[in-house]
Design a protein that fits this description.
Elements lengths: L1 H25 L4 H7 L2 H7 L6 H10 L1 H23 L5 H16 L2
Helix pairs in contact: 1-5
Amino acid sequence: MTHDRLVAGVSHAAFLLSIGYVLALSRRRDWPEASRLAAGGFRDMSRLAAGDPDLYAGVARTNRENLIETLDAISAELTRLRRHLEADDPRLVELFEEARSVRERWARQ
């Protein structure tokens, strides 16, 4: 269903990314020190991870196939970003600019 595919991208994947972000950082050995430095960026990225786990799990199970497809696309973009970082590629800023432009167009709707 088209609606399920769309919300997987603009809603459901966001809470999975938030959860993954929090879990990845919290499993690092230096998390206790890092958590004391956490501020606005962490607050913004982790907000959805503070939601209802049972609700999120139900949504994830219900829309599993679309979420997996969306996570695959996000993973591909993260891999692309990583390649640019590893290569110290100055074109990395172009990806940042592209993302900012997409976000700004969305905000003006």
